[in-house]
Amino acid sequence: MEKASHLSVIVDLSPTQWHLSAQTSNQYPLSIETFLSQLLAFLNAHIASKHENSLVVFGALPGKSVLLYSSTELLSDDVPSLDANSYLPFKLVDSTVVQRIMNEFDAIGELEEEPSCALVGAVTKALCYINRITHPSSTTAGVAEDPSIVHDPRILILSVSPDLSSSYIPIMNAIFSAQKLALTIDVCKVYGPDTVFLQQAAHLTNGSYIYLERRDALLQYLIMSFLSPTSIRKILAVPKQDKIDFRAACFCHKNIVDIGFVCSVCLSIFCQPLPVCSTCRTKFPINTLKRLNAARP
């Protein structure tokens, strides 16, 4: 019997980037309203695939990340009224996600300078959530296996913001944690340039990175590429990235570098040779520094 699947969706909700995405000067403009309508259809499709499937949605907002919806716990007392023309789980997802996003946008207000989007915080919360639901309490040991226990967790990131070089170390730590949990990170780049770090996240966790060339076909991309669980992808031709950018960010200036200098003790990366490693305080010989400076392009 097919096992239950868990999907954690992380939605990038940067107001500035979504404003730019909706500009009519773009070849394929995509507003936040159109995006949400197609995203909700995808979330409903995941729930409809199997009754035991679970879903959680996190929002990455400027300076913070929030839980928007969870199928395992009720986040609000405002349960939508019963409607004979709609399926209650679908209506619960739609109303909860939209209402909480609108509340968060109203709380942001007008900012003189928008903080960076807390994407790493949302990924970390998703990892903690998956770790909690995939490791039931020890009191259930020896009990017959429950089909609702998640066996196929994965994370889907919907990104519109560019790379933030200062988040290199946290995102790499999150990737290593995902590898430990044996879960897949999929990435859909909805708007903006390719993100180096999310490309690496998808590659290192055996996930799929898709850059939307036709944003008016978002729902088709989501269903064809990200609806199937990882256990079924072995027999499907799921598209993946042709090339991966493996550049890293230096620890000193947080810049993405093509050529870096690595500390031989703690493996910290720097954009130029330093006499003392700022991470582990290791001192390097003067002759070595001269040789490395002479070899710089």
How would you summarize the topology of this molecule?
Blueprint: E1 5-12, H1 15-21, H2 32-49, E2 54-61, E3 64-70, H3 88-108, H4 119-134, E4 152-159, H5 168-181, E5 184-189, H6 196-204, E6 209-211, H7 218-226, E7 248-249, E8 256-257, E9 261-262, E10 269-270, H8 286-295
Parallel strand pairs: 1-2, 1-4, 4-5, 5-6
Antiparallel strand pairs: 2-3, 7-8, 9-10
Helix pairs in contact: 2-3, 2-7, 4-5, 5-6
Order of helices and strands: EHHEEHHEHEHEHEEEEH
Q: Helix amount, in percent?
A: 25-40%
Alpha plus pi helix count? 8
What structural category do the secondary elements indicate? alpha/beta
- State the separation between the terminal residues, measured CA to CA: 58 Å
- The general outline is globular
pLDDT average, as an integer?
84
Strand order of the largest sheet: 3-2-1-4-5-6
List unreliable stretches of 5+ residues. 138-145
Give me the count of strands. Answer: 10
What is the C-alpha radius of gyration, as a whole number of Å? 21 Å
Strand content: 15-25%
Largest sheet: 6 strands, mixed
